[in-house]
């Protein structure tokens, strides 16, 4: 299957495995890339030396293209970008920051740059900054999200109407049917997060993977908008956040409750009560843990079957 995105990244299928903190290490990224998708390493949860180790292991595990997701609000950003260049990475997805800051610098070093946005306004800013493509992520997505709560169904066509560069849809996409729907709405590819959390190669704790598989409709909610909007599984920590909101907390009080490394505690270490468990609404449709290659194969089979089914309408 060939289109703007498969050509841009030199990949077989227009599927991007999201670079999620504490979930997307070299094992998942290389497995996704080997299966024909674009695997991404989530640099946001890695110290510079850890990132370098993951990049080197990923290069040994695949000869296919892979990339790195870099949240620009994280410390050591200059060191991280230099390591990416030194290790010969050719694709970078930036998020949580101004795309003008690093886009030109990366492109001058032969790197394709994609920026993650949650609104038409920021998609236009990313295009103005010169990025090669954008990921438009709807309200359904897990992890950090947009404050406006614009759903993928409405966000994708609105962004498509305004931009000229390639568009990748994210948020609530875990099946080939959803992939087809996103592409009908104007996307050139899809970015998939939650489905890959529940993969054998994901670096998420097994207990968190099982929470994802057991999740039902309504088990997640977007919260902490005053800090950075994040969709969380409703657990003890989430309930503590809701109780604090009843008191009209200040930003400092929210930060104090959140503390440090709570996402690591939840997703990577498996603390299901006091940890921050980030996952998308689509978790309610994820019922098993399987190899990344099988996830890609299943999505493509569902995609082709959905195309045939739609053509008969």
UniProtKB/TrEMBL annotation:
Q: Which SUPFAM superfamilies match?
A: Inosine monophosphate dehydrogenase (IMPDH)
- Name the residues that span the membrane: none
Name the source's superkingdom. Bacteria
Q: What is this protein called?
A: Nitronate monooxygenase
Q: Which keywords does this chain's UniProt record carry? A: Flavoprotein, FMN, Monooxygenase, Oxidoreductase
Q: Name one GO molecular function term.
A: nitronate monooxygenase activity
Concerning Pfam families, the annotation shows: NMO (PF03060)
